[in-house]
Backbone:
């Protein structure tokens, strides 16, 4: 099946050569040295950061392009109001023209890969065809890629994905270090036949098809059909001083600190956090009625700016070697730098644009959405159970957003349906992870707005249905957190980072029927948080329900939910009415 598909794509894209990736170190080293030769990669100083590379993209190819992302379900209403849609037959015909000859002069790489631990019954296979060597090296870090995946996928279904940078090379034409086609970008999903086509971008989620395209958009549609969940969630293990361990999954919009939370270093004595995943969770009920999660990915594609020994020492240690850096700044002595990194600011930086950085010009040296790509196995707190084939049992699910007001630091839902309502209500101030204005409030239900592969109203209904699959006492409890509350002067009210362990402690206790709380109009709020050793924080403001602000929030939500029309589950509308009533 794969062979004939590869031949078909090759006949369409007309590459100069075809290379089936085996995933070996030798292969990666060869591709990397070719990229150094072509000027795409700069090797970093081996004594400082062994086997690591710096590169920068085309200035117009720096983030996910949501306006060029399509869900081509048979019927428009199945894509829903939050996705771009085109008729699949028309789109397919357009793609045949677009991809015709698009790999001329280039190598076509065939990447067999597995999302999820190779031995997991929850894992799924994919094959990405790409003309980007950068994609090959990133996919090698982000997925289980190569010979082993290829062997295991024989006779099994796989999600085919075709990716091209959209820049065929004419005879004798010099290649650019970051080939792409910003004026003509298409990130296209066919959830019906479970396939992906991506054209014109070489960056991140647009091009690494295992990540957002497969593990979220396509997988969410598979999960709906098969009764499981594909979510934009980190997974962490948390152990209390008595040695009791639990797992928590948490959904936040892009660049709201998922990687930091997943790798958190607790400030409270005796508590331990371990990382299972930092971006995506696939979850289904096990035979014991509990919800189990795997991380389909094998690496981190993390936002660099703001990452430091202070904010995320585990990430800093993870990226000490074997890392690809994209769009960060380069130091004189061939190491990397970004805004918010520790230490004094180095002179003589090369900016993410590849030119000498002019400090006085008021522009950042690293792009705000610059990234590191690195294998999870290098994370010093990578959880031993992260590769468990059956996944890890989830005790709590957290939703959060970047909200400067209204949403308190933490609260607990009354039950599953109320928790689903909280997920549907997530909104956040926008970041640089997607193209567009930064700092505007946007609704981002379940942090899945750009990632849900079908009608968001049906997705809410699917979540509600999932809650009926097991006994209520086996369901994870659902929480909402907000690390980003600000005072009247615009100063953060909560220190965040390692101190967020205090909030996780309360959640941990609550899921053990400990941890006291009181009922409010919006949910259960903590009676107290462990703030021992913390310099003055205004818990009163952090844990208050501002009724006027919440009434406004309800109006906002009510207006937003109209977007889903008849597909908005009645339960969600009733939850909103009940909240209004309580307020
Ligand atoms: C990501 C994103 O890259 O959410 O993980 O944008
Ligand atoms: Mn993400």
Residues:
């Amino acid at each position: 099946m794969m062979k004939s598909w590869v031949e078909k794509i090759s006949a369409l894209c007309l590459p100069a050569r075809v290379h089936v990736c085996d995933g070996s170190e030798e292969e990666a080293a060869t591709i990397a040295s070719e990229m150094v030769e072509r000027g795409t990669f700069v090797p970093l100083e081996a004594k400082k950061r062994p086997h690591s590379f710096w590169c920068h993209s085309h200035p117009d190819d720096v983030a996910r392009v949501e306006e060029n992302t399509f869900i081509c379900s048979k019927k428009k209403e199945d894509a829903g109001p939050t996705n771009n849609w085109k008729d699949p037959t028309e789109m397919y015909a357009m793609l045949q023209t677009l991809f015709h000859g698009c790999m001329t002069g280039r190598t076509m790489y065939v990447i067999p890969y597995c999302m999820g631990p190779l031995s997991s019954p929850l894992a799924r296979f994919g094959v990405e065809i790409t003309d980007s060597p950068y994609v090959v090296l990133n996919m090698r870090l982000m997925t289980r890629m190569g010979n082993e995946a290829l062997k295991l996928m024989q006779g099994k279904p796989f999600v085919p994905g075709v990716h091209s940078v959209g820049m065929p090379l004419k005879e004798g034409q010099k290649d650019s270090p970051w080939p792409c086609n910003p004026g003509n970008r298409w990130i296209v999903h066919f959830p019906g036949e479970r396939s992906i086509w991506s054209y014109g971008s070489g960056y991140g989620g647009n091009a690494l098809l295992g990540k957002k395209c497969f593990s979220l958009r396509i997988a969410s549609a598979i999960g709906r059909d098969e009764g499981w969940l594909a979510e934009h969630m980190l997974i962490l293990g948390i152990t209390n001083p008595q040695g009791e361990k639990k797992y928590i999954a948490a959904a936040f919009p892009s660049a709201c600190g998922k990687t930091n939370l997943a790798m958190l270093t607790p400030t409270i004595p005796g508590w331990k956090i371990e990382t299972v995943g930092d971006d995506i969770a696939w979850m289904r009920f096990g035979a014991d009625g509990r919800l189990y999660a795997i991380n389909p990915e094998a690496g981190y594609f993390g936002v660099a700016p703001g990452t430091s020994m202070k904010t995320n020492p585990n990430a800093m240690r993870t990226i000490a070697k074997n890392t690809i850096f994209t769009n960060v700044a380069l130091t004189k002595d061939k190491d990397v730098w970004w805004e918010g990194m520790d230490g004094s600011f180095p002179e003589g930086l090369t900016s993410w644009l590849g030119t000498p950085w002019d400090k006085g010009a008021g522009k950042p040296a690293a792009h705000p959405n610059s990234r590191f790509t690195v294998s999870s196995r290098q994370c010093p707190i990578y959880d031993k159970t992260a590769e468990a084939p059956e996944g890890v049992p989830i005790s709590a699910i957290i939703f959060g957003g970047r909200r400067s007001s209204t949403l308190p630091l933490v609260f607990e839902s009354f039950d599953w349906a109320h928790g689903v309502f909280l997920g549907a209500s997530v909104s956040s101030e926008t970041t640089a992870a997607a193209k567009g204005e930064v700092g505007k409030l946007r609704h981002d239900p379940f942090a899945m707005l750009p990632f849900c592969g079908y009608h968001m109203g049906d997705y809410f209904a699917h979540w509600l249905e999932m809650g009926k699959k097991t006994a209520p006492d086996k369901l994870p409890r659902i929480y909402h957190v907000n690390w980003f509350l600000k005072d009247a002067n615009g100063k953060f009210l909560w220190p965040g980072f390692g101190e967020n362990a205090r909030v996780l402690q309360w959640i941990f206790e609550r899921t053990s029927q400990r941890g006291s709380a009181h009922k409010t109009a919006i949910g259960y709020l903590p009676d107290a948080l462990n703030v021992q050793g913390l310099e003055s924080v205004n818990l009163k403001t952090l844990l208050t329900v501002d009724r006027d602000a919440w009434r406004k929030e309800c109006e906002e939500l009510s207006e937003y939910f109209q977007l889903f029309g008849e597909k908005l589950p009645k339960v969600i509308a009733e939850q909103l009415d009940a909240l209004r009533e309580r307020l």
